[in-house]
Specification:
The protein has about 325 residues and is an alpha/beta fold. It has helices at about 15-25, 40-50, 55-65, 70-80, 95-110, 110-120, 150-155, 180-185, 195-205, 210-215, 240-250, 310-319; strands spanning about 10, 30-35, 130, 140-145, 150, 165-170, 190, 220-225, 230, 255-260, 275-280, 285, 290-295. α1 (about 15-25) links the parallel β1 and β2 (about 30-35). α1 (about 15-25) packs parallel to α3 (about 55-65), α1 packs across α12 (about 310-319) and α8 packs parallel to α10 (about 210-215). The N and C termini lie close together (about 10 Å).
Length: about 325
């Protein structure tokens, strides 16, 4: 099969996924992004609470990344009103225009899924952007000292003691759409990450029907490891730690390939050194269950992130 015709499913939805699909769209239009619906922080969390809808933020960011609309329209989609993102739930300051537009379309159509589809149509997206679940979900974690941490925002901002041991969905068995399952069933490649492991990636993998479909799939399965660990979320994690955490939560190793950055020559900006440290790799390794592919993937301008073009090229070379 021609590489450009392969069906790719990306799991996640945060800035890591956005960087990935910005690069991948130069190679193929057959991309489906399955976006975590656990986000409850920042401006999207405010809209979620006030209007009782799924969080719009990561969906809108992915739509913007895949949009073929005029540049001015894409800027409008991602425009954020000045002010505090963590302000009052009902206030306008700090909100992103695209999030407000999705809320409006959900009210007009009476269906959040239809609203996302209309956003895709209006902004002429390549591929599909799909919510991971059709239910209102949240996450909670247990830590190494027995503490229970409620809500994605608290986990994301490190408002806990000890280290994260297990992550859980609430409810445990949320439903997902037929479109998501069909995309996974027809995928040639399934990619998880990059993105925050416990607050973005696992909340997609832990949706039971999604995990079941991935485990049954014959697709090539690739996990993109973050350039840097959040010290309070994945402290000193190496490849084997991610593999172990996936097996612990998913009951199997799931992914065949692990793609990791091996360029740590850049310096993490001083204001982030207390929060992040590079994930280290010793090169290419095989252990019978998975293969590690190590390449220079770093964004030299901001070395906490992947470079979109480098990452997409490395992914494409594995297809």
């Amino acid at each position: 099969m021609n590489k450009q015709n392969q069906q790719i499913v990306c799991l996640g939805g945060g800035i890591g996924t956005v960087n990935l699909i910005k690069g991948l769209r130069a190679y193929t239009k057959n991309i489906t992004v399955v976006v975590s619906m656990a986000d409850d922080g920042g401006s999207a969390g405010r809209l979620r609470r006030y209007y009782r809808i799924p969080p719009p933020g990561d969906l809108v960011s992915c739509i913007a990344a895949m949009s073929n609309a005029d540049e001015l329209l894409k800027q409008l989609l991602t425009f954020r009103f000045s002010g505090d993102r963590y302000g009052e739930d009902h206030s306008l300051p700090g909100q992103k225009f695209g999030n407000l537009m999705l809320v409006a379309l959900a009210s007009i159509t009476g269906d959040f899924g239809k609203a996302v589809a209309e956003m895709e149509r209006i902004f002429k997206t390549s591929g599909r952007i799909l919510p991971s679940t059709t239910e209102n979900i949240s996450i909670w974690a247990e830590t190494s000292v027995g503490e229970v941490v409620e809500r994605e925002e608290n986990i994301d901002l490190g408002r806990f003691t000890g280290t994260i041991e297990t992550l859980h969905l609430k409810p445990e068995n949320p439903s997902t759409s037929k479109e998501v399952i069909s995309a996974i069933e027809h995928a040639d490649v399934i990619i998880a990450g990059p993105g925050d492991f416990y607050t973005t990636i696992l909340p997609v993998l832990l949706v039971p029907d999604i995990l079941d479909a991935i485990q049954k799939s014959k697709a090539k399965k690739l996990f993109v490891v973050n350039v840097a660990n959040k010290i309070f979320e994945t402290p000193k994690y190496e490849i084997n730690d991610f593999v172990s955490a996936i097996e612990k939560h998913c009951g199997s190793h799931v992914f065949d390939l692990f793609l990791v950055n091996n360029n740590t020559s850049a310096k993490i900006p001083s204001e982030f050194t207390r929060q992040y440290e590079f994930v280290l790799s010793d090169g290419i390794e095989k252990n019978g269950l998975y293969t590690i592919i190590a390449k220079d993937l770093i964004n030299q301008s901001f070395p906490l992130y992947h470079d979109s073009q480098k990452l997409a090229k490395a992914v494409y070379e594995t297809l």
